[in-house]
Amino acid sequence: MSVALVTGASRGIGDVLVRALLEDGWSVVGLSRSGHVADGAEGMPCDVTDAGEVDAAVAEVVSRHGRIDLLVNNAGLIETEQPLWESDVDEWWQVMVTNVRGPFLLTRAVVPHMIAGGGGRVVNLNSGSGTRESPVLTAYHASKSALARLTGGTAVAGEEHGVHAFDLAPGVVRTDMTRSMKMHADRTEWTAPEEVVELFLALAHGELDAFSGRMVRAGADDLEALRRHAREGLPDGARMLRLRPWGPDDPVAG
Does residue 248 lie within any of the structural domains? Predict the structure, then answer.
């Protein structure tokens, strides 16, 4: 049975993905501060920003199951919505620590086991926020830009070992976090969890390995279109963070 490790597994999108994996026949271990997880999965308490706790948790999963086939970096934070110069220093930095250090530590601990097992997949819960600026959520947006670089670096270095990494943007699912955000106060249309699950399972099953190092987005992407692009191939830089030149005479073009 394939083994998945999911962070931020106790609620929100993490809980949705844990339940989807269980229904799909995976053996699932969920990490969270509380250690709570859906029935049928194994829960472990873990602070994903603590290197010692992460290493111990990963070692325990490998000891129990012998392998990790799928890592899902879902745990994340968002800060108070305000301009950078009004931000609380500790709150701002904690968003960066959770959203970047956490996935870094998990990926660093898990990928060597994937390589030893012949390959695996890392799905990072990212956001379109990482591709643009925000006047009031600079930490969150910066953290998601940084996460895309972790995804890309993992994909490039992992390719020869059969390790693939993806950015999955879940759209705007109605969760405790999104409901607390001022920008979504008047929102009436939300991304259905089922749309996230559909793309997520396609990534987990290897249907979209051509998108390794790239972003897909629930609520916007059509799975059949993604499958077609995966078969036909993607141009360099497609669905990746890149500096856009002003034109062909831009000295940084290419």
Answer: no
Q: Which positions ≥6 away from 236 have C-beta within 8 Å? A: none
Catalytically active residues, by annotation = 140
In the chain, % helix, strand, coil (3-state, to 5) comes to 45, 15, 40
Q: Please report whether residue 25 resides in a domain.
A: yes
Contact 141, 92 (CB under 8 A): no
User: Regarding beta strands 3-7 and 120-125, do their DSSP bridges make them parallel or antiparallel, or are they unpaired?
Assistant: unpaired
Residue 211: give the domain boundaries: 3-232
Residues with Cβ < 8 Å from 63, sequence gap 6 or more? none
Cα dist from 176 to 1, 13, 73, 180, whole Å: 32, 10, 18, 6
239 in any annotated domain? no
CATH of the domain at 81: 3.40.50.720
- 31-66, pLDDT tens digit by residue? 999 999 999 999 999 999 999 999 999 999 999 999
If one counts the domains in the chain, the total is 1
**pLDDT of res. 187:** 59
* Beta pairing class for 42-45 and 27-32: parallel
Kindly tell me if the per-residue pLDDT of 173 is higher than 70: no
Residue 107 CB: number of other CB atoms within 10 A? 22
